[in-house]
Each structure stands twice: as C-alpha cells, then as structure tokens.
Amino acid sequence: MSDNNLIEGEGYSVEHNPGTHVVSFNGTMRLKTSADYAHINTLLDRAYQETGDDEKLTLDFRHLQFLNSSGINTVSRFVITSRKQNKASLQVLGNQDIYWQQKSLTNLQRLWSNVTIDIQ
Amino acid sequence: MTQVQPTQKVYGAWQQIPVTPSRQMTVDAQQMAAHWRRCSLSSDFWAQYMSLFIPTRVTEEYLGRGEVEQVLAYLLNELFENCAKFSNGSHQLVRYVAWSQDDSMLFQVTNHILPEGQAPFAKLIDEMLNNDPHELYFQRLEENVELDLDGSGLGYLTLIKDFGVQFSFRFRPQENGSTAVDVQAKVSLQQE
C-alpha cells in the first residue's frame, strides 16, 4: 500500500523522493473533488517543507497522461501556497508528447515567477 | 428548424442542428457518480472514437489525430464529470451527442438539474463568456486559495483559454419539474 512518500490509487501514483526532492506523478489522475486530492496536497506540502530554502523541489509530470481540472486546481493551489512561503523554488517537468502539458503547464509559471518549466 | 422556446434560455453561439447523428450515448448520472472512473472511461472511448475521423497525416495547419484525441479526452471528461457531480432531482439521464463538421467537431452533453440550480449556474456562465478567460482563470485560482473554495468553472476556463474550445449553454424547463441543461462544445481542428 502506501507509506508517507507514496500514494497509489486506481490508475495513478504520486511518489516523493526525499533524497532528490522530486515528486513524480504517474498514470491518469481524475479524482472527484478537491477533498479527494487532499492527501496529494499533504504530500506536496510536506515535500516542500523538507526541501531546503536554497534548494529546488521538482514536480515531474512526464508520465502523467491526464489530470482533470480538480487536479490542476490542486497543483495550482500548491504553487500559490509555496509562493506565499517563498522558500524553495519549484521546477516543473513536462512531456511534449502530452498535449495538455504543452498547453497548460506554463500557467503555473504565471502564478509564481520562481517556477521554472521544462517541457522535454 | 426548431425555434428556441420562450422559456428556454441560451448563452453563447448555440448551433441548431436538424440531424441527430448516430454517435450518441445515454447514461445515468448517479451511476457515473457512484462509479467515478466511468467518466474517464467514457471520455477516453469517445475521444479515441472521434479522433479516428482525423487522417493519419494532416497538414501543418491542422491538429494531428493524437492531439485531437487528447483535447477531446480532456474536454469530454470535464463534461461527464460535471454531469455526474451536478445532476440533481429525479431525472438523472445524461445524453451525449457528437457531430463531425468541416473544420471542427461539435459535442452536446445534456443533464438535468432542479430549477433553482439554474440562476447560480447562469451567473457562472455569464462571467465566463463575458470576461477575458485568461484574467478570470488566474483570478479564480487566487480566490480559491484565499477563500478556500473548490475550483468552480476552472475546467471550462482551461478548455476555453488553453484549447480554444467554444462553449454555449441552453436551459430548458421540463414538464416533470426538472430543468435540462445542454452544453455545446465546439472544438476547432485547426492549429491556433
């Protein structure tokens, strides 16, 4: 099942690697409500707290096929709350073969200038 | 063709299309909500099905088959999720219809709400269709954090601003006391 750094659901997983400060998203994540995303929010917040002020936390979406608008809201909310804390910066990795990532991931940079976007 | 009835209320560029295609599906909203991944399954199926209208090779000005499939999967999932979440009252039928047009595809998804649900949804629609979608999107995200809200309308706004989807909406009061909500989504097959 899951430890603190791994969330596995039907068709998706989210994993935090505390050594490399990377949170990886995999599969198709289309949960019903923001409440259903709460445990992912908790993992993201903890990953941010565990990243040093001069370090960078990476959100790796390269293996995430789909994310619904509730999920985009969750990730956006995390970027905004990180901006308010203004500690570690964020790096976002995307996949150029996944169309929504090409189109939508850059929105995260509009929320906070300390977000870098790398679509590979 | 069919005239809009006086009790009906339309928002956006509604298309009256006389011919109903064979590409349609009816499902039960409560069943969709209870078995949530059916929204995802249905959207991925219809996205793939409709994308097969796209030739394997297209010129640069058009979206490729894979791109169309991904846009449709995103769009239809949001529409089916909305039907599953927001259908209200005794009438729980959801109807999906799709048309393939010259340079676009048109989708219509219908669900039913209680009459009192119309005004708040119409207010959201008015705001979406009459404001800059980019500004409204970022404003909503910030408000959601400030006020600890769920992301109402964010799915539509993402589809409008990032994928160029054009929405129109129609409310039709029914004799059984419910109100049918028809959402039309037009997807251009040309690159932006």
Your description of this structure?
The complex is a heterodimer of chains A (120) and B (192). By secondary structure, chain A is α/β, with parallel strands linked by helices. Chain A has a single domain (6-119), classed as 2-Layer Sandwich (Transcription Regulator spoIIAA), CATH 3.30.750.24. In chain A, 33% of the residues lie in helices and 34% in strands. Chain A has helices at residues 38-49, 69-85, 99-104, 107-111; strands at residues 6-9, 12-17, 22-29, 56-67, 89-94, 115-119. In chain A, strands 1-2-3-4-5-6 form a 6-stranded mixed β-sheet. In chain A, α2 links the parallel β4 (56-67) and β5. In chain A, α1 packs parallel to α2. Chain A is globular. In chain B, α3 (65-86) runs antiparallel to α6 (154-163) and α5 (133-147) packs antiparallel against α6. Chain B is α+β, with helices and mostly antiparallel strands and 192 residues long. Chain B is globular and about 50 Å long. Chain B has a domain at 24-114 and 165-188: 2-Layer Sandwich (Heat Shock Protein 90). Chain B contains 6 helices and 6 strands. The chains are: A alpha/beta (120), B alpha+beta (192). Chains A and B meet through α2, α3 and α4 of A and α2, α3, α5 and α6 of B.
